[in-house]
Sequence to fold (641 residues):
Amino acid sequence: MNVIKGFQDILPVDTEKRRICENRLKEIFEKWGYQEIDTPTLEYYDFLVKGVGPELKERMFKLLNPDGEVIVLRPDMTTPIARIAATKLELKDKNIHKYYYLNSVFRKLNGNTDDQQEFHQAGIELLGLNNRLADAEVIAATIQALINAGLKNFYIDIGSARFFNSIMDKLPLVSEHKKELRKTIMNKDFVLLEKLMLLYDMSNRDKEIIQHLPHWRGGEEVLGEVEEVIKGDNHTAALALQDVREVYQHLKIYGFERYIIIDLGIIRNFDYYTGIVFEGYTGYMGSPICGGGRYDSLCRKFGRDIPSTGAAIGIEKLERALGRQNSKSKESLNSRKYFIRYQKDFIQSAFQVAEKLRKQGNIVEMELDFENSREQNINYALTKKIRYLIDIQSEDLEKIIKYDLETKQEEKVYYGKDQ
Amino acid sequence: MEKTNKNLIMTIALPSGRLFSPIIGMLKESGYFGVIDYDEKTDRRLVFYNQDETFRFIITKPKDNPTYVECGVADIGIAGKDILLEERKNVYELLDLGLGKCRIVMAASRLKEEIEKVIEQRLPLKIATKYPNISRNYCIQKGIHGEIINLYGSIELAPQVGLADTIVDLVSTGKTLQQNNLKIIEEVTTISARLITNRISYKTKHKQVHQVVTALRKIVVN
Fold:
């Protein structure tokens, strides 16, 4: 074992795929007007800890720097970006800031079987606005990015942290019981939940609401059902439902209705969420691929009030979902990749051909070891997904043979001076 | 090779071992899964289907069961609460099946008063167990200065030969404890088999998951 558990070497066969995937996400973020932001890998513990909730605090990698100060590896990107926003940005009254990032974050393992301690996230943050259009835009951009990355058959569940909090606030329970109940609902431990329902002194209506919570899932009609149960005596909850409805309708206009499911049972692990929350997933994966939501009180913890909303996509999870989805399709050879085989005497011609092809935007490798047979060249080409083998057997640039490894066809090509 | 079937509703992971037979019994009794053709005595298949191939069953080691569910290769699984507490996998508990009921206890060969004195004075208490996480949590809860010794089996041996002061282990009848001169100091927690699911199956197959819960709830004996 020469690599720390949960950390990974990534070899070229995977880095290529990763860059393609990342570029497709990035492309959408940029097209929607988000700009890249980067933050240090290491942060002061004392400062960052103001923003991260207890769950993430426990899971941060803590180190001592040479001055004896406690520093941490960033556990997410949202908290450092909130720190920047609150301390560095010129925020006038109506300024909004749109950022995206592609970065690695670090968290101690949580017992999940397939988790990494260092993993990569692509995400966006929209700072400076508190309205449903902003919430919907972040979700829509995330959906568009996933589509662009090639993901099929995925869903985004949207719910509201505010809705859940308002239900919990209204319960006539002591804070210790509330905390226990909250944790139980969050872990979706239905066995314990049933026991707590018997134990705690709550009205039948409250019990009904709590027990319904995880099942309030579906299309727009769910909101009507829930409003019926709440019946106007929880004003905040009613407003939160209205928010969900508004975001849903915006997403419908975007044409993303088929990706959206309303799920009022979503409770995200991070404490900083205050409004709309969402998570995206696909079948055969045990945990979400992406998630996010509104976190209006996070920046305040760093000194300035800035309403914000954001999303993060787990790159490793997305790659796994794409791999699973595309496992049956055969990987084809890359038609922009060439390998040039030549006799030692014709090195100059080979150089000319290579440069010409490279200028046209191709990836060209030249023979570096003249002991290799043609067979060996072909085998090498196949491992690197190279489609064409160029064979130069004379100085005459008109007599070059281009062999297509995909179709196994040969053709004569002309690589001389442009006519 | 993974078989793909259009009718397949979901995959259920069943634990091998002592719970297997009563669970198969429950599945058959519920009537919800139609005909399940699996003879526990002679069958060696690890993957099998019900007759109309709507449910796929896989057989796992009991301790591995939550892993299959957590990763999403099984939609539903069945695991003892001891494993869930120890492994802390990210799975949802749907239903207490009332099977495999037993307790996790702290036991010792020395007198209860002696051990309590050690705990009270915050002296180090050596605990042999195959449940290091459960033991550690118990110690934190009770303020015990515990030193945990992780063993893989025959835990009852440890206090007798002086490897540990106490053990934290599973007890069903108490016979093994008795024959090894161990007495229960305190109950740590009670255990039974739980129906579990993962975060995503709970979403994508919400209705189907709840139909299984409802079907099994009817025949749970409490």
